[in-house]
Amino acid sequence: MRVIARRMGASYSICEVMLDQFLVTLNDRRKNRHFLEIADEEHPVGGQLMGSEPEQFAAGAVKLAEAGFDIIDINFGCPVKKVLGRCRGGFHLSQPDVALEIVSRVRDAVPADRPVTLKMRRGLDDTAESRDNFYKILEGAFAIGAAAITVHGRTVKQRYIGPSRWEFLSEVKRHVGRDRLIFGSGDLFSAEDCIRMIEQTGVDGVTIARGAIGNPWVFEQVDALWRGEPLPPPPTLREQAVVIRTHYDLIEQSYGVDRAAVLMRKFCIKYSASHPQHEMIRELLVRIRSKEQIETVLHDHYSSDDPGRYLPREIHGSQEEGCG
After folding, report:
1. Is residue 194 flagged as an active site residue?
2. What is the pLDDT of residue 85?
3. How do residues 117-169 score in pLDDT, each as one tens digit?
4. 241 three-class SS
5. What whole-number distance in Å separates Cα of residue 45 and Cα of residue 71?
6. CB-neighbour burial class of residue 178 (10 A; exposed 0-12, middle 13-18, buried 19+)
7. Domain tally for the chain?
8. Within this chain, do residues 178 and 64 fall inside the same structural domain, yes or no?
9. Do 71 and 168 belong to one domain?
10. What is the DSSP pairing of strand 148-152 with strand 18-19?
11. Can you give the residue range of the structural domain that contains 270?
12. Are residues 203 and 251 part of one domain?
């Protein structure tokens, strides 16, 4: 997914979040190699880390740096219940002293030329205490040496329910001033959304998460709008097929033939949303178990140069769990 995103115009990508304790005990067995795999064309690429204990957090960060990740990103935003229950992710927004110790230890543990960044939500909840904790972590992290902080406009307790509060991003950017980098996150499902967030909030950039899954064309669309050009048309069916095949091939290279089709299925389901007959295509792709079955669907339904469609917002409306 990271390679596809970069080829489609993303200026930077970041790996899926990994647990510090997992990284510390990770060995070099073949079945584990993909966790730290980085393609030459990906750089710069960030390694994203989550955990509970400051000392182990730092050890995990070292592993990411040794693996070749150019940036170390600390996740203080994950709202998943089992993560919070183990004092990880967004839980740290409730304990700023521990959070800042983590930032300090990570900053000290990795080489000075590796930027350390954070991912945060606007707080654990909407109480005054939560707000105070957010700003204590924000200011403290920059003072320690954080290079940039991504702020998601929802609280941890919101998870993905309700709108992301973009006005909070405006407040944060005004608070830190021009010299500190703030990236915005939350409810970015189209190129227009990304440009609108930057214009409305003044953030220095945006991070696209769920909105890019199955829709990597969003990056080149954002790039066009940012340059003042018209929005590119949605990818044709033939163009979609090229990306789907490439995505499958990359998965096969990392995970092997036996696992590739099953792992690709969740992405195929997302890709199907760009097809004019998306409901029928989704039903076909949800059952795939082999490369041959994927090829059959592509041959039968993606061989023409007919136009695809832009993804409607309701496609992303599910309140799925994630660590953004």
Report:
1. no
2. 87
3. 999 999 999 999 999 999 999 999 999 999 999 999 999 999 888 888 999 99
4. helix
5. 6
6. exposed
7. 2
8. yes
9. yes
10. unpaired
11. 237-301
12. no
Contacts 24+ apart (CB under 8 A), 300-303: 301/237, 301/275, 301/277, 302/237, 302/238, 302/240, 302/241, 302/244, 302/275, 303/237, 303/238, 303/241
C-alpha 161, offset from chain centre: 18
Q: Is residue 78 a contact partner of residue 35, using CB atoms and an 8 Å limit? A: no
In 3-state terms, what secondary structure has residue 105? helix
Q: Are 72 and 115 in contact (CB under 8 A)?
A: yes
Q: Flag whether pLDDT at 286 surpasses 60.
A: yes
The pLDDT tens digits of the residues spanning 40-88 come to 999 999 999 999 999 999 999 999 999 999 999 999 999 998 899 888 9
Of 78, 194, 268, 323, the catalytic one is: 78
Domain CATH number, residue 297: 1.10.1200
Evaluate if pTM is beyond 0.85. Answer: yes
Evaluate whether 320 touches 210 at the Cβ level (below 8 Å). yes
- Distances in Å between the alpha carbon of 78 and those of 50, 109, 133, 264, 323? 9, 23, 16, 24, 4
User: Is the domain of 123 the same as that of 206?
Assistant: yes
- 321 found inside a domain: no
Last residue of a domain, one of 197, 226, 255: 226
Q: Quote the CA–CA distance of 319 and 309 in Å, as a whole number.
A: 23
Structure tokens, 290: 């082999």
